[in-house]
Amino acid sequence: MKMTYSLWALPLFLTACGDSSDSHAHHEHEAAGGAAHGSGSAAVPANPISVVDGVTIVEMTGNDRMKFNLESFSVPAGSSVRLTFTNVGRMPKAAMGHNVVFLTAEADAAAFATAAAAARDQDYIPADFAEQIVAHTQLLGPGESDTIEFTAPEEPGDYEYLCSFPAHMYAGMRGLMTVESP
């Protein structure tokens, strides 16, 4: 009789787990600013890129699925960029910390990511590759944000950005900042 009861309870348990997962996703949307839309259905800020007084304002998020909300964006060469990065995930920083590292045009992202994996004590920012970094945020845990300001490179082209936490770039946490002629 106990086995019958256990088998009967299993579908209820699985259904309850599914509901929890949906709630978790909704919570991440709210953390990313989706609640401002009324439905909470947007996973990214309503307008993640804007220009105010000549400064490109970028609102970027990273989540527990190892994805940025932006895969690419453009800025004018030599312009000011203000990036606010928020880790909207819920997993602990030691397991799922995120940052954003903008590399120079000639940098080898794979070599950088390999070196970063060995730079745990420096929050995965390898000192030997400092000359290949345009700018970077702090490594963030769940719910944390960091705002950085930097000048876009003068040379037009594509500049890769990535999360330097081990394996995150390979899981999809990478994108392109295109620097355009003014």
UniProtKB/TrEMBL annotation:
Entry's PROSITE patterns? COPPER_BLUE, MULTICOPPER_OXIDASE1, PROKAR_LIPOPROTEIN
InterPro entries recorded for this chain?
Answer: BlueCu_1 (IPR000923), BlueCu_1_BS (IPR028871), Cu-binding_ET (IPR050845), Cu_oxidase_CS (IPR033138), Cupredoxin (IPR008972)
Protein keywords:
Copper, Electron transport, Metal-binding, Transport
Q: Where is the Blue (type 1) copper domain?
A: 59-180
Key word Transport present in the record? yes
> Under what name is this protein listed?
Plastocyanin/azurin family copper-binding protein
